[in-house]
Amino acid sequence: MKKLLILLGSIGIVSSSVATVVACNKNTANENTKDKVQELKNAISKAEAIIKGKEQSSPLQVDSRALKTLIEELKKINDVAQATQGLIQLQEALDSYLAMFEPGSIPSIKYGITETLNQMKEDKPLLIDTDTALNKQPTNKYTNQLSSRQNSASSIVATTTIDDVIKNAITTLLKNKVQKLDVTKLNITTKNNEFAQINNQNQIEFGKIDVDVTYNNENVSASGWKISYASEFLKQSKDLIHQWDQGVKMEASKIKLPTSLPFVGGSEIGKVLETLGPAINSLVPSKIPTVFDDNDPDYKKIDGLLKMLNKLPHDILNKEIKFEKEMIQDTPVGKANIKIVVKTKALDLIKSLIPTIINFKNFVSNQTNKDLVTNLFKYLTIKPQSYNDDGYGELFENIKNNKGQKVEFKSNLEGILFNLLEIWKDKNGKQMTEGQPIKFSFGLGLGNQNPAEHMVNLAYVAKKIGDVEYQALSKLINPAELLNIIFGLASIKEDNTITIKIFDLVPVPLPIGELLKDSLIKMILTMNTDPDFDKHVDLKINKFASEIQVETPDQKWVVMDQSNLQTATGVKFVVKSVSYTLTDKNGSHKIEKTIVNNNDKFVFEFIMKLDGSFLKPQAK
């Protein structure tokens, strides 16, 4: 009402003093008008500055519409009487406006209540318990009665209704959102409830209920609110279903880094590379050092980079990273208990991969297409060689196994595995890391044997260091076959398997589709969900069909294979169909859905494009 009076008063100002203006002496009036109008203009400027500041500092608490309307009317004033009245009206309106920002004031509290309840729409429902929202309490007997307990001694029945739950939830929310709210002055009434439901088509419908609120015996809103309510499980599930029904499309460059990362947390990957890329390029030398001391300028750069990384907080790069997986597989000779253990440290990985990083930098700098991901796929498949005379190819020229035979490297993937399983040394034998950079142990137990009793340490080539025997990686799987496996994953479903030979003896079918379904596929599909999704929803992927696709020079997307990769201009990962089950944490409510793409869109499309144009060879 007060805002309405302010607005009506502002309109009345414009026509209120015509007679007064006519009666004034023209000369005197002109001088007084000029001064008074200027004073009003100054006051308006100050008021507008206050509004701007409040809207920037407290955007959720601001309703400046009435004051802005008054100011627009006041700007039309051009005589002393109107200006005098305008100054009074402006001050009163400004005082009322500023009262909204005084914690505990009635205008401030009413505005806070209004803004909070206004947000309780379909996209931001009031959150309560799942069973309550769905009217699925075990003892429920009546439409709005959620639970019933009978006292055997007094035969008194105590009930909790949906109205009580909604009132309590709103009260709690308002206490947290509105400063200095006095709950004893708050009165909430509800009516016309419609419970949430999961219908026969497995669609989620949020609950609806009409809410009226008074504060200090004053109506906060004449029309009240029809608010939506749900639970975390219902909201998170509905958001996910909507995303996948519509099709999710993401670009690697626009993914935000975790906020926990120092300096760059919360920033888009593309923006980070654009900003820090030139600095990264300058920190990584263009030549692979041959001697690990400061007399080698390339090693000096690497050492400076490593010292900088060591200054990261919490010593995060020196913490052990451990992956341990046990599984049981059927084999031609019976059940096999398999155990895989991988141990490493982030800093050891970086140190071991420095030659590859330098070589990849030079490789990208020589390519017309600067996309990092596309070039990485290409790089993995080609034979190790030097670029810009960086010395990388020479590192693999004289590698011999324990029989004195030369080891052939057919792809950079094999070279990376060698660098991860062996120790990078300079020409004098000085090691970059202490011990094996990545420790890979493999255990096999047949029948009831415990695989931990037969752990085997793996290296790229067979060797013995001290009392520890290292078996060659080729005993587990031929490194040259890994590329075939990767290309085999370019089109995969949940039931796909690959066969690997263990120690050249036991062929083991590896359920790669099943393993990826519960790890990589699930992780990728939930990339765009709420950070707390896993706390409220159990997601099970039942079936899926996915592809790694490349863009051809004529701008068509096809399934990646060895024949089209080297001419590809882009890479993306797509999920074409998925069947899944969503379950609440109590296991009480399940939602089963199947989505198949209709050729116009995918369930999930991840364009793996990152601009690597900042990678350039350094001038000598």
Automatic annotation (TrEMBL):
<feature type="coiled-coil region">
    <location>
        <begin position="30"/>
        <end position="57"/>
    </location>
</feature>
<feature type="signal peptide">
    <location>
        <begin position="1"/>
        <end position="19"/>
    </location>
</feature>
<keyword id="KW-0732">Signal</keyword>
<dbReference type="InterPro" id="IPR054816">
    <property type="entry name" value="Lipoprotein_mollicutes-type_CS"/>
</dbReference>
<protein>
    <recommendedName>
        <fullName>Lipoprotein</fullName>
    </recommendedName>
</protein>
<keyword id="KW-0175">Coiled coil</keyword>
